[in-house]
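Example 3.2
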Amino acid sequence: MGIPKPLVDQLLRENEHHECPDAPEICVRVRAIADLPTRFGDYQVVAFQNNWDHKEHAAFIHGNVFEGSAIPVRIHSECLTGDAIGSIRCDCRDQLIDSLEKIGKMEAGIVLYLRQEGRGIGFANKIRAYQLQDAGADTVEANEMLGFRPDERDYGIAAHMLGSLHVQSIRIMTNNPDKVRDLQNHGVTIVDRIPVVVPPTVRNLSYLETKQRKMGHILDLEQNDDATPPGDVPVAEGSAGRHRA
């Protein structure tokens, strides 16, 4: 069971003419809510739209989260190459699937899917960054060479989405301390952090090492199991740190 229909109707009414004149860039309104059976369990999908930049974001909800406290929440930024195409340069798809599977087995939880491709620099710039990485730069250096910060994302939209769903407090599913701080700065009450454990592989180890060393992500790069993406091989025991990031 997801959010009951009377509450769905309430959310739609509340958002019909919703505006944020003081902060339009982080203002979203609920436009539609529908059931979404998935391979990870029964979900509801909530379509959000920002009238300022016209970007559309999504919430995938399992169970009734309305007025809920300590709700497990994964905030996932769009990664077309990983999420849709299965790129193994990053661990984005693995984290998304892991979160959907875990939440699908819980009483209630949310995956917020934000249109912040390439850590907020956009798809074309992300591929430009890939070109620089192919030439030897790491993921942080590539962004900086293009004139961006290592991470350009802002989680004000996510905070607004959670508020629109009347979520009172969350257990955030992340390895990124900056995401925790940013959400708290936007008024989200976080009662716990749930690590997202994805085994590293030879292809993405340098990328993960850079996130750990330069961006402060909390990662266990010694982890290894049989859940290896097709076409890649798992990291050998004790091999973390041997590859240039």
